[in-house]
Amino acid sequence: MFDKISTQANKLVSLTNKIHSNSKTKVIVVTSGKGGVGKSTLTSNIAYLLSQKKKKVAVLDADIGLANLQVIFNIKPRKTLFDYLDGECNLEEIQLTTSYHNITLIAGKSGYQYSNIKNSMHFSRLVEDIVSLNKYDILIIDTGAGLNEQVQEFLDITDNILAITTTDPSALTDVYALMKMVSLKKSKLMLCFNFTAKYEIGATITKSLKNLALKNKLNRKFMVQYMGNISQMNSISTTGRLRKLFAKELKQDVASLELDVIVEDLLKSLK
Question: Average pLDDT for consecutive 10-residue bins of the chain (271 residues)?
Fold first, then answer.
């Protein structure tokens, strides 16, 4: 059993190296320990802001079973990533043109149970196929909440991991669990606080999380990089209900300006 797991891990490392060495495409994984923190909303708006900085962006909805980016982008996909994994269509058919210039969506399927997944590597190969096209500057992967096997597989793919959290105690507990897991294999986790009124609040909590990590003897070389905060604005939920992106519709809103600063720092931090 150990030899089998070790072999799979080595294959994933080799695949990850291949993904990064043969393409210009940078891969960002956006994740969270807890659901309901606004991860998909921020993912779609991050994609928009990147596209406004002349980046060609693909967004992969990897929230297995609870995909909702097609709703946010107001698209009814005829084919999803699962159709491709099942061999029912080619890669071109799942790259969906959105109404936003330079943004492509690879949709998931809400409520879908992918029974063919017996072990790891399926989703990693999908990412490899997308990145190998060498047509996108950035591929953003929006994972599901939690720390299940599928989420872990996506986290293993890249060193560019952005965690979304809030100040809710349960969200902080879950993001700390994410920190512990990521620290085993990675040197850094980027952290963004959503629904948080002041930059200093997120900075203070991030410092506390770092101290807790040191106290519990996590990898001392592991770094938590605080990226910033997004204020809670009624306009965000309003634009979401209208299937519009707040960063486009409300460019001068505080939340849009805060997210733009985060995106600028994100670009500087990409490996």
Answer: 45 52 92 92 97 98 88 94 93 97 93 54 92 97 91 95 97 96 95 97 97 90 96 87 94 96 97 85
CATH number of 164's domain:
3.40.50.300
For the chain, what is the domain count? 1
- Mind giving me the DSSP string for 213-267? HHHTT--TT-EEEEEEEE---HHHHHHHHTT--HHHHTTTSHHHHHHHHHHHHHH
pTM value surpassing 0.85: yes
Partner residues linked to 228 by β-bridges? 192
Number of neighbours of residue 10 by Cβ within 10 angstroms:
10
CA distance 162 to 31: 6
Report how far residue 170's alpha carbon sits from residue 184's, in angstroms, rounded to the nearest whole number: 22
